[in-house]
Specification:
The complex is a heterodimer of chains A (92) and B (219).
Chain A (H helix, E strand, L loop, with lengths): L1 E9 L6 H12 L12 E7 L4 H16 L5 E9 L4 H6 L1
Chain B lengths: L4 E5 L6 H11 L4 E5 L10 E4 L21 H9 L3 E5 L1 H9 L5 E3 L7 E9 L15 E8 L3 E3 L2 H9 L3 E5 L10 E5 L5 E4 L17 H8 L1
Parallel strand pairs in B: 1-2, 1-3, 3-4, 4-11
Antiparallel strand pairs in B: 5-8, 6-7, 6-9, 9-10, 10-11
The chains are: A alpha+beta (92), B alpha/beta (219).
C-alpha cells in the first residue's frame, strides 16, 4: 500500500487574492519580511496497490481528473510506501 | 410545441425552485426536477443547472457536481443539441465538465458579491437571448464568491472572435477576464452565466430583465 501527499497550487501566473489578504495580517503582526503568500491545498490519501508504477498512475489520474483543475492549478505529490498502524487497522 | 424543461437538483442547490417557479408559474411550461443521483433526463428539451453550492462546493465550486451521475447524460444530451442553461453554480459546473471553456475563480476582491449587476447583452443572436435587443443594457442579480471568469488569452480571443461572449458586466465586479459574465459553446446550445435571470422575473424582485431569457427559450 502507498500513501500520497498531494499539494495543489494556483498557477504562478494567476493572482491569489486570498494569499494577498492573509499577508495583510502578517503586516499587522509586524512580520514585514513575509512576501508572496500563496494559498493552496494539501490532500492525502492511500492507494491500495502493491506496484509503485500502478500507484503513481492512480494518483495522477485522481489529481488530473478531479483534485486539480488544470486550467488554473498545478499539482505535485510525494508517494511513499505505507503500512497502516495497528490503531488504523482497528479503526477500519 | 412548448419545450419541456428539466431542472437538475444537487444537494446544496438553492435556485432550483426559483427556476421551477418561473417556468411553471409564469410561463406555464412542463417542468421536472432531475435528481443528481439519477441518470434520467425525463425527455427534457431544455436542462437547467441551477445556482447554489452543490455538494457544499468542496474542493472547487462545481467540481463534485460535474462528476455526479446525472452529468454524463447531460454531456451526451448537449452533444445531441439539447439546450443547457447553467446559472451561477450551474456555470461553474459547465466549466468543470468542459462543456464550456475557462474556470471560475474566487472573486478578485475576495468579497461575496450580492447585488444587481449591470450587464450588456453582447450577443442577442442566440437561442437564449433572441428576446433582448442587441447590446441591451439590463440589470440582473448576482450572488457569488467564485465568479471571476478566467481563461488564457488564446481562449478569450477565440470566444470573442466567435461572438461567444453573450453577457458582459458593464463594470468590473469580480475580476472576470474582459468583464465576461456569460458565454456560449461553439454549437450555440449550452449557455453559462453568473447572473441569475430567474431572480429578475417579477416587479417585486426589483426588475424583470430576466424574463426575456426564458421567453427566448420558448420560441
Amino acid at each position: 500500500m502507498f500513501k500520497a501527499q498531494v499539494t495543489i497550487k494556483r498557477r504562478p501566473s494567476i493572482l491569489d487574492p486570498q494569499g494577498t489578504a492573509v499577508e495583510k495580517g502578517a503586516e499587522n503582526l509586524g512580520l514585514t519580511n513575509i512576501k508572496n503568500t500563496r494559498i493552496g491545498k494539501y490532500i492525502e490519501f492511500t492507494v491500495d496497490v502493491n506496484d509503485e508504477k500502478k500507484a503513481k498512475e492512480e494518483v495522477e489520474n485522481y489529481c488530473s481528473k478531479l483534485l486539480a483543475n488544470p486550467i488554473m492549478e498545478d499539482f505535485e505529490y510525494i508517494l511513499s510506501e505505507w503500512t497502516p498502524s495497528e490503531e488504523e487497522v482497528n479503526d477500519a | 410545441m412548448t419545450p419541456k424543461f428539466g431542472v437538475v437538483v444537487f444537494p446544496g442547490s438553492n435556485c432550483d425552485h426559483d427556476a421551477y417557479y418561473v417556468l411553471k408559474k409564469i410561463f406555464n411550461c412542463e417542468v421536472n426536477f432531475l435528481w443528481h443521483k439519477e441518470a434520467d433526463l425525463k425527455e427534457s428539451d431544455v436542462i437547467i443547472l441551477p445556482g447554489g453550492f452543490s455538494y457544499g462546493d468542496y474542493l472547487r465550486s462545481g467540481a463534485m457536481a460535474s462528476r455526479s451521475s446525472i452529468i454524463q447524460p447531460v454531456i451526451e444530451a448537449a452533444a445531441r443539441g439539447i439546450k443547457i442553461l447553467g446559472v451561477c453554480n450551474g456555470f461553474q459546473i459547465l466549466t468543470e465538465t468542459g462543456l464550456l471553456p475557462g474556470a471560475l475563480m474566487r472573486n478578485s476582491n475576495i468579497n461575496f458579491v450580492c447585488k444587481d449587476a449591470e450587464l450588456e447583452v453582447t450577443n442577442n443572436a442566440t437561442i437564449f437571448t433572441s428576446g433582448y435587443a442587441k447590446n441591451a443594457a439590463i440589470s440582473i442579480p448576482v450572488a457569488h464568491h467564485d465568479g471571476n471568469f478566467f481563461a488564457d488569452n488564446a481562449t478569450l480571443d477565440k470566444l470573442e472572435s466567435e461572438d461567444r461572449v453573450v453577457f458582459r458586466y458593464r463594470s468590473d465586479i469580480n475580476g472576470s477576464s474582459r468583464n465576461i459574465a456569460g458565454i456560449i459553446n461553439e454549437a450555440g446550445n449550452v449557455l453559462g452565466m453568473m447572473p441569475h435571470p430567474e431572480r429578475a422575473i417579477d416587479e417585486k424582485h426589483g426588475g424583470t430583465d430576466g424574463l426575456a431569457l426564458f421567453e427566448s427559450l420558448l420560441h
